């Protein structure tokens, strides 16, 4: 590991200058065929965040992604797939200004909403693969029940494929959304261990998750034989070694195309001490032992039997923040009074907002692989383009499969983070 650390430190010093590369030079590299670049688009982002898929297209982000995950589709108490918000998914009309293709939706068209916009996005980016993400933090309550028996697993998988892959949406013509989704992303948070309050948890979740992935793979492959398509199956995976041990078997990678490992929320404003949330390595002087880091998370998955090339590291497009710090210095590992004020939630803030906050000084720890902003009172973790480039260097050096980004609405209007990640992962 020391050799890898030295290499990352040596190249990280030039990262800030690399991100200044001209758009023409960046485009000349082309799209990498070796690394996946997965961006999450949130269903609800079209509301308060005013973030539509047209912005993914117009910013240049779509052209630099290999996969777009649409989040989320919940698993219901009846053990089937459903829409969390049909209005957002296939009903809401978009104006010409907000549409991917620049043409306004009209009354009576077969399908509207985000799904129609996804179809338009794919038309402009034919190599882009779009996946439906099932579950999420608030949509995983009944995964355990649905995965419990062979019959319940078949029922769940069949319903998910019927709704999202075959495109049989309630109240619309049969197959109206067929061909929009190229696969399924499993975001069960978490099998065998605590997630959102009220989630059903069982010790047998660990093996049942493997059986569930096998059932998804079998049914997707069966459909693929008739459609002559390969349908992707991926999963969002935890960073904590204890959660890996409690809920996952290495054999799941026989069924998955790849798994995305949580590379953020290692620390946050639920604690009263400023810290890193997405560091590559544990920083020197960190107060917690053991502590979380990207390298620690990846190593936990390798120990569990995951092939490195099927591991994709998650990267945050948002910051964790603390305020009320009075100890001076650079603000790191300092006692705070609470979360820093945020636009949508206290304690978190989008990159596009944090980067423009006045009065903050930028600090970098290249050896650990994390950065932060501090103004003497308020502290924000900070993954900017230079930091993202260092993380892509880690991904390459470690032999991983690529990067995942949560979530695209946190980037700026130029898609600076996405472009930096693409540059770092382009051969």
TrEMBL record:
Protein name according to UniProt: chitinase
EC number from the UniProt entry: 3.2.1.14
UniProt xrefs under InterPro entries: Chitinase_II/V-like_cat (IPR011583), Chitinase_insertion_sf (IPR029070), GH (IPR017853), Glyco_hydro18_cat (IPR001223), Glyco_hydro_18_chit_AS (IPR001579), Glycosyl_Hydrlase_18 (IPR050314)
Family: Belongs to the glycosyl hydrolase 18 family.
Pfam family, one: Glyco_hydro_18
Top-level taxon: Bacteria
Span of the signal peptide: 1-26
Matching CDD domains: GH18_chitinase
PROSITE patterns: GH18_1, GH18_2
GO terms of molecular function: hydrolase activity
Reactions the enzyme catalyzes: Random endo-hydrolysis of N-acetyl-beta-D-glucosaminide (1->4)-beta-linkages in chitin and chitodextrins
UniProt KW Phosphoprotein keyword: no
Keywords: Carbohydrate metabolism, Chitin degradation, Glycosidase, Hydrolase, Polysaccharide degradation, Signal
Domain GH18, residue spans: 35-427
């Amino acid at each position: 590991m020391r050799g890898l650390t030295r290499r990352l430190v040596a190249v990280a010093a030039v990262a800030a200058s690399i991100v200044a590369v001209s758009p023409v030079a960046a485009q000349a590299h082309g799209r990498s065929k070796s690394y996946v670049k997965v961006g999450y688009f949130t269903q609800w982002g079209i509301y308060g965040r005013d973030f539509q898929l047209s912005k993914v297209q117009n910013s240049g982000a779509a052209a630099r992604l290999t996969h777009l995950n649409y989040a989320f589709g919940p698993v219901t108490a009846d053990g089937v797939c459903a829409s969390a918000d049909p209005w957002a998914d296939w009903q809401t009309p978009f104006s010409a200004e907000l549409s991917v293709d620049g043409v306004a939706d009209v009354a009576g068209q077969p399908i509207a909403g985000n799904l129609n916009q996804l179809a338009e996005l794919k038309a402009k980016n034919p190599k882009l693969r779009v996946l439906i993400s099932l579950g999420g933090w608030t949509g995983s309550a009944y995964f355990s029940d649905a995965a419990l028996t062979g019959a319940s697993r078949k029922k769940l998988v069949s319903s998910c494929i019927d709704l999202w892959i075959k495109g049989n949406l309630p109240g619309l013509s049969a197959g109206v959304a067929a061909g929009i989704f190229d696969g399924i992303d499993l975001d069960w948070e978490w099998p065998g261990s605590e997630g959102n309050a009220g989630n059903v948890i069982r010790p047998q979740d660990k093996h049942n998750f493997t059986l569930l992935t096998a059932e998804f793979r079998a049914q997707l492959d069966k459909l693929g034989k008739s459609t002559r398509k390969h349908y992707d199956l991926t999963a969002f995976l935890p960073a904590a070694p204890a959660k890996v041990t409690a809920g996952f078997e290495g054999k799941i990678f026989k069924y998955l195309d790849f798994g995305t490992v949580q590379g953020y929320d290692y620390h946050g404003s639920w604690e009263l001490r400023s810290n890193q949330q997405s560091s590559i390595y544990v920083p020197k002087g960190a107060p917690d032992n053991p502590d979380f880091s990207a390298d620690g998370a990846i190593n936990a998955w390798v120990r569990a039997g995951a092939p490195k090339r099927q591991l994709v590291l998650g990267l945050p497009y948002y910051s964790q923040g603390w305020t009320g710090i009075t100890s001076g210095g650079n603000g790191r590992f300092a006692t705070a009074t609470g979360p820093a004020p945020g636009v949508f939630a206290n304690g978190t803030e989008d990159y596009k907002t944090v980067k423009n906050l006045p009065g903050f000084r930028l600090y970098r720890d290249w050896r650990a692989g994390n950065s932060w902003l501090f103004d003497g009172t308020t502290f924000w973790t900070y993954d900017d383009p230079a930091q993202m480039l260092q993380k892509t260097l880690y991904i390459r050096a470690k032999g991983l499969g690529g990067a995942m980004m949560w979530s695209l609405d946190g980037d700026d209007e130029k898609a600076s983070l996405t472009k930096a990640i693409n540059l770092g992962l382009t051969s």
